[in-house]
């Protein structure tokens, strides 16, 4: 495979969040919160109030309300773990995996009404690993196979945005997105009683056109606001190397090329915030993601030898409900806390230990922020904990043409620290 198509394949490698991670713990391809410490502390409830360079991600219309130009650095180191019946019958604890996430964003006012935003930042990603998983059975014509069931995902998005302030209350904005993804995926399954190990390795590519569009309203006294953020759907296609073993027998040519296809679905968020008094502001937001569009993930190879041509997902649409608060009664410090309730994406019938756990997810966040150097340097920190479990998953659905979803106990968890430094000028 030439380097040009490989570089142009895209975030489809994030399909490994369904195949081999399950560590976008809430489900689908994304976490409930991302890299900005301020808005992570608010559970991601930013669509109505974001007024700095992070608006390029949360709602580009918010750029029009910036008070100063800024450049910002963000870091969000995360530990994740997925557990489940990875060997087909027993509950197995997966390895704890470290997932780095970070970002750089900036905003610059071009005119009184027009603001430019730019940035590069993590848009998703996960890591999961079950060591020495055994599938299949040893028999006269069958053989078991023991191997690692794992994934490594890195998704990076670059954005360029413009926002226009229509009047004192209303603004609109849009972000052009360029997204790069890398994934290394190793799948364990079963075909005709024999164990199968399939690797989709060095999957990478770039999607060069997708957008975020937004609008925002702020009241004259800034007591309350409303925001709407829309993300367009992207058809995903990635290319990389393919390898396969059936009962220990190599079933592919070394370096065989493979293609994977799925989509990153449309998403829309709507939020509101309200200042109760001088000390408290409340936030609420709902995010809808059209994951029902993804009913399978397809694989192809140049010679047509793919052992698992498709994974049946039959995902459900996702809703994130976010509530949060800010407290201003501690002098120079602002305290923040949030909660996110996320509906299940993976149906119980199609559960797998490396899919997202088929249950609702709960995310708890807390953080603080302070300004330094005559309010030109802002520092925010946050902590996040995410938990999801289902102790009685029914399973039974056809994950592939030859293997069914395993019943049993499934759970996932993630913990993250977020830190952001913003310089105003």
Provide the descriptors you would attach to this structure in a database record.
425 residues; mainly beta; Porin; 14-stranded antiparallel barrel; elongated; disordered N terminus
Report the mean per-residue pLDDT as an integer. 86
Q: Quick one: CATH class?
A: Mainly Beta
- Lateral arrangement of strands in the main beta sheet: 1-5-6-8-9-10-11-15-16-19-20-21-22-23
Radius of gyration computed on alpha carbons: 22 Å
End-to-end CA span: 47 Å
Helical content class: under 10%
Biggest sheet descriptor = 14 strands, antiparallel, barrel
Number of domains: 1
CATH homologous superfamily, by name? Outer membrane protein transport protein (OMPP1/FadL/TodX)
Keywords: Cell outer membrane, Membrane, Signal, Transmembrane, Transmembrane beta strand
Protein name: Aromatic hydrocarbon degradation protein
Membrane topology: Multi-pass membrane protein
Organism: Endozoicomonas montiporae
